[in-house]
Amino acid sequence: MSSIYVLEPPTKGKVILNTTHGPLDIELWPKEAPKAVRNFVQLCLEGYYDSTIFHRIIKGFIIQGGDPTGTGTGGESIYGSAFSDEIHSRLRFNHRGLVACANSGAPHSNGSQFFMTLDKSDWLDRKHTIFGKVTGDSIYNLLAIGEIETGKDDRPLDPIPKIKSVEVLWNPFDDIVPRAVPKAVNHSESDAENKDSKLKPVKKLNLLSFGDEAEEEEKQLAAVKQKIKSSHDVLNDPRLLKENQQMEESDINPQ
């Protein structure tokens, strides 16, 4: 196993993911995967990964995170669109702890999501960009997350492991300037808040930048409907009931 590590190029840069299962120390390969590392480091500096979950765990294979919506279908890169793969001959999926870009199943479709290997996975070679590795004793924290029980779609069961905060100890790029961007809606936390309202129809908001505005619109619509309902309860005038009924039938459904 030691010869495998010798073949790998030297790392430059270090980030710590503080998770609910302890820290994950990640060393980076900015020379071999400059786009991927720049994307990861800048998102870390911007707090993009704070309070996000590891939404997918496959025992003995990978844990996956980096999606602020918690659904496994969200997240975007700092470039505004998907960025290209960076495959390096000296970086291969030949041991556990490797950190790589998660894509949509097609080449050059990288965004904000990433995964970490729990074992050798050489069939992934040349299909995903490797840009870092988990080092030191923190590898045991990674393995502990990998043992969490999962349900449908490999989603971990409660308590879902989470990235609490991120520290960039060594930024390999001097020119990175974090953007002032609105924090994305974390649907993994909102799922827990909605457990008591399972019988009520809940509108799914898969928006990133406009999630807060959409939620505010939902609250305003709910308030209007509540006022109409209270009028029915308090007043027994048949004309008012008929008038409100016609108004409800002609009301536009929220999108």
Automatic annotation (TrEMBL):
Residues 22-160 form the PPIase cyclophilin-type domain. GO terms for biological process: protein folding. Its EC number is 5.2.1.8. Keywords: Chaperone, Isomerase, Nucleus, Rotamase. InterPro entries: Cyclophilin-like_dom_sf, Cyclophilin-type_PPIase_CS, Cyclophilin-type_PPIase_dom, Cyclophilin_A-like. One of its GO terms (molecular function) is peptidyl-prolyl cis-trans isomerase activity. GO terms for cellular component: catalytic step 2 spliceosome. Residues 230-242 have a biased composition (Basic and acidic residues). SUPFAM superfamilies: Cyclophilin-like. Its main location: nucleus. It catalyses: [protein]-peptidylproline (omega=180) = [protein]-peptidylproline (omega=0). It comes from the Eukaryota. It is an enzyme of class 5 (isomerase). It is found in: Nucleus. The keyword Hydrolase does not apply. PPIases accelerate the folding of proteins. It catalyzes the cis-trans isomerization of proline imidic peptide bonds in oligopeptides. Belongs to the cyclophilin-type PPIase family. This is Peptidyl-prolyl cis-trans isomerase. It comes from Linum tenue.
